[in-house]
Amino acid sequence: MSPEFLLQLTRRLPDISYLREKEDLIPYSFDGTATYQVMPELVVFPTAVDQVVALVKLSAEFQVPIVTRGSGTGLSGGSLPVPGGVVLCLTRMNRILEVDAKNLTLTAEAGAVTLALAEAAEKAGLFYPPDPGSMKISTIGGNVAENSGGLRGLKYGVTRNYVMGLEVVLASGEVIFTGNKCVKDVAGYSLRDLFIGSEGTFGIITKVLLRLIPKPAARRTLLAIFDDMEKAAETVSAIVANGIIPCTLEFLDSVTINCVEDYAKVGLPREAAAILLMETDGHPASVAEEADQMVALATANGATSVKVAQTDAEAAALATARRAAFSALARVAPTTILEDATVPRSELARMIRFIQQTAVRHRLKVGTFGHMGDGNLHPTFLTNERNHEEMERVEIAMKEIFDYAVELGGTITGEHGVGVAKKEFLKGALEGANLELMRRMKQAFDPLGLLNPGKIFDP
Amino acid sequence: MSAHDSLRALDYDVLQQCMHCGMCLPTCPTYDATKLERNSPRGRISLMRSIADGRLEATRTFGEEMYFCLGCLACETACPAGVEYGHLFEVARAEVEKSGELDKPARSVIRGLLLRGLFTRPRLLRLVGRLLWLFQASGLQRLLRALKLTALLPKRYRDLESQAPAALAKFSCDLIRSVEKIGTPRYRVGLLTGCVQDIILSDVNRDTADVLLANGCEVHTPPVQNCCGSLHAHNGEIHSATDLARRLIDSFDLPKLDAIITNAAGCGSHLKTYGRLLADDPGYAAKAAEWSRKLKDIHEWLAEIGVRKPIDNRKSRIENKQVTYHEACHLCHGQKITRQPRDLLRAIPGLDLVELPESTWCCGSAGIYNITQPEMAAKLQERKMNHIRSTGAAVVAAANPGCHLQLVNGARRMDYAVEVRHPISLLAEAYRNEPARG
User: Fold this and answer.
1) pLDDT tens digit sequence for B13-34
2) CA B39, CA B33: separation in Å to the nearest integer?
3) Which of A285, B6, B33, B209 is 20 to 30 Å from the Cα of A321, by its Cα?
4) B272 with B222, same domain?
5) Average pLDDT in the B168-185 region?
6) Among partner residues A28, A134, A385, which is closest to B23 by beta-carbon distance?
7) Residue B217 sits in a domain of what CATH number?
8) Closest chain B residue to A44 measured between Cα atoms?
């Protein structure tokens, strides 16, 4: 980074906060992704969109790459710095600007924390459903850029389904707002949708307009235990075939169940092959009816036990195992690699079995849990990044798992994004001209290649 | 170079356990204040790991960062991967002290006098306590304050003077006999009286003995006990800490006791680590492991043995006395004890427990943090006092001497009348209020 760039930065943006010292930069050299680290040369904290514009223009002049980040919780290295680049941290643009109860929308700056938005919506009696695991600290800008998922995907969809409009600073320094508060809008290409999930490679999202929905009046929680993965999968199929769309359909495999027992001792049978945490929400009458049907279907499909929570406290107790799943796994080994291979729901049982067999074949410890309702699995590798021989086996196993997911009509990443971690798997996952079209789009949005370069695919 | 004072000698797995997911950020009071990664647990761990990797030296900036951390351990509660931040933080501070990067003559003198001098010598500490009591009881303090002579002090020391705790007339050994029992006890326990606690809250120690007696415990209380060394371990004085640990272990007849009881959260959290602290000492490793196993916080112990619910005395009880509960960091985060003190308070007849918003957020006391980082400590104190005020409670219960003083000073600073009590003192009072039997 040239001294002239820094000089111009302080001249044109005299009020902007930035970090330059080694001790300040090291903590910005990674995100939530295991094993990746790249030192940034500069971290800047804009507080308003015109500062972002000035920075983008300056970077273009000096050919300095920009990596935009929020709280740095990403799981594919999307906000990992690039060598010689500046990190644009949006955590100080975190205002919630409006909750519009008439149009059921919420407007916020990109650095607002997801949980804060959800709470603001709830205060108005409304509901923002996407709930990525990191929502207590993740920023909405990052959620949109990665198109984050969460536990409610089956019934409520993912972040994309709640974005109505975006303010974006383009690579040219121009600012656009794409979208509006209208439910229907077909005026031209939906640029908004192109920015969702673009991982900061098309532009810098500075403001979001989100769709809210009314808060469901009631909820019922159930927990079913199975001695066979097939039976759990059959139960899920039967529930959906009977016209019930639960808001939660989460599962844990046997490795995860045993890790949860080691850690939290919640009283799960260690010999169980799978447990399903199920929730239905909506009108109290239909919730009660659906819960009864789900119990019947689970029992008919061979569940060894089904529990229904009668109170909020009981519901929380039933959810403990699922909530503890990741913590329980993360404690087992020094390095935890959380993956998100995803397949069509109908292929779940096969995919899970394949993951388990692959782990055995490569002598690896892999616990799998995830979102059974939407086919999004989290095979979690419990390893040690300093054991190079084992890490090689992890790489091979991962490739086999991704290849198989694609073979079953699935994808290499359901909700974490490609970033740098999945880059080399992308080619195998996309057919025909997909990748080439993506490259041409990148070229159109960012001709100088300065916005998060090297993410998703190599320049 | 040892694993106690060198990040490079430390088991690397402990550092590597951090997967930098960021779940600690929203629970960290310093990150909350600055929103800078360096001031967060995962940021600090990344710096420690850089030192272990040889990519960074223990610089002055690193040292300042380690002392900006409160050591509240809220991050340990939030951490999905079970990172032992408290352990990392102690080693990092010891590394900072070894590097000498923060050395200044005044700092060295104060650390030498206080940490290595005063707090390693229980009798000297008591002498200071007695002088403080004399100063306060004789009216000299009031006189100096009335004449505004304290205004002659530089601001920093003036602030400290106004925060000086009130010393009590009697030490724990004046209030508790070395062995006490009632009837045929079910258990035999040792009671830790602490150092600061012994001077300013010896009445809480008496209350603790009373509560133990009321719950079928024979109580053994050595009259002279040294500081547990938590101040030392948290402030990079690892050698003093190990020395104090050995001496304290030797004060008790460990094999004969079912448990060693502490009523101070900060001490308890450290006392439970003796096993690790002395693991490499052939003469003490086994004893220290036994010590760690038997060491119980008073609330934890009472929950384990089943606390006797005080008999309701309708004549003397205060109807619907509203009490809120502030959770000392080293109780809720350091020892994961959250339910037991609440259950115990709820067992008191007539006591109405009102939940405190952000009850697990640090009050800013954090050992000697309110002395070393007065600004940040004052912000946290104000935040805590505002929450206490919002509950409308007349009493705030807290189970740590540091918190106790911070809350008392906070109430005074904000001119807000709230009584600060140890939960065990409230329970002891309820036992004393019981109708006479027979």
Assistant:
1) 899 999 999 999 999 999 999 9
2) 9
3) A285
4) yes
5) 92
6) A134
7) 1.20.1050
8) B36
Characterize the bridge pairing of strands A376-383 and A365-371. antiparallel
Whether residue B313 is contained in a domain is answered as no
Q: What is the pLDDT of residues B322-372, one digit of tens each?
A: 999 999 999 999 999 999 999 999 999 989 999 999 999 999 998 888 888
Q: What is the mean pLDDT of residues B164-171?
A: 82
**CA of B10 vs chain A CAs: smallest distance (Å):** 14
Looking at the DSSP assignment, which residues form a beta bridge with residue A370?
A: A251, A377
Residue B74: inside a domain: yes
How far from the centroid of its chain's Cα atoms is residue B4's Cα? 21
Q: Are B303 and B340 in contact, with CB atoms under 8 Å apart?
A: yes
Q: Do residue A22 and residue B36 have CB atoms under 8 angstroms apart?
A: no
Domain identity same for B89 and B16 = yes
Chain B environment of A34 (Cβ under 8 Å)? 19
Taking CB atoms and an 8 Å limit, are B59 and A32 in contact across chains?
Answer: no
ipTM score of complex: 0.94
CB proximity B37 to A under 8 Å = yes
Residue B140, domain extent: 105-163
Q: Do B36 and A334 touch (CB under 8 A)?
A: no
Q: Does B19 contact A24 at a Cβ distance shorter than 8 Å?
A: no
How far B27 CA lies from chain A's nearest CA (Å)?
A: 10
Residue A54's H or E segment, with its range, is helix A49-62
Secondary structure letter of residue B114 according to DSSP: I
| Dist CA B233 CA B97 (whole Å) | 11
Can you tell me the mean pLDDT for A33-46?
A: 96
Give chain A positions within 8 Å (CB) of B19: 32, 34, 330, 335-336
Query: Does pLDDT of B134 surpass 90?
Result: no
- The beta-carbon neighbor of B22 closest among A22, A73, A115 is A73
Residue after which a domain boundary falls, among B163, B187, B207: B163
Domains, chain A, ordered by start = 1-215+433-459 (3.30.465.10), 217-331 (3.30.70.2190), 333-416 (3.30.70.2740)
Q: Tell whether B158 and B177 lie within a shared domain.
A: no
In this structure, are B180 and B301 located in the same domain?
Answer: yes
The model's pLDDT over B47-65, given as tens digits with 9 standing for 90+, comes to 999 999 999 999 999 999 9
- Is residue B75 included in any domain, yes or no? yes
Report which residue type is found at B351.
L
B143 class by beta-carbon count within 10 Å (0-12 exposed, 13-18 middle, 19+ buried): exposed
